[in-house]
Amino acid sequence: MRNVLMLAAFLAAGPGWAETDIFNLTAAERAAFRAEVRALLLVEPQIVDRALNPPNPAAQEIRQEIDDDLRLLQALAPEILGGRQIALFIGADCAECARAADELEAVSKDYGAEFILHDTRDPASAALADRLGMTDLPFYVLPGMILRGHIPAVVLPRYLD
């Protein structure tokens, strides 16, 4: 913003610029203007970056939430994954949970992957799900990622490699 104000002040203060209609420049005035703008941009190229990428508070807030979630996952990884590649959270009153557990067990055998099963009927597993803010079962946890819902057996190998 400071640079824009500097440019505006320059344009207003320069010889002859005060009386010049900025939208109706002569060829010589256009050339002089281009030269001054070029010189300014060479000295302070960040002006272009700020103009093309203005601050986006919503994107910054989302990025902060993502970073917070990733830090939480990293902090809880020893408890959730216990050194394994994937964790599955299941619980009572979950129609897809048994199927998800069976498919993960079969796929993990085929791919030599280790998984850990967290049943939210166990208070410790329920507390982990709560800390993650997850209420819908089943869900999977991998390093740096949570996958909501039942993941079909044909898709699971993609996450185990």
Automatic annotation (TrEMBL):
InterPro entries, A to Z: Thioredoxin-like_sf
Record key words, sorted: Signal
Keyword Signal in record: yes
This protein's name: Disulfide bond formation protein DsbA
Upper taxonomic lineage: Bacteria, Pseudomonadati, Pseudomonadota, Alphaproteobacteria, Rhodobacterales
Signal peptide: 1-18
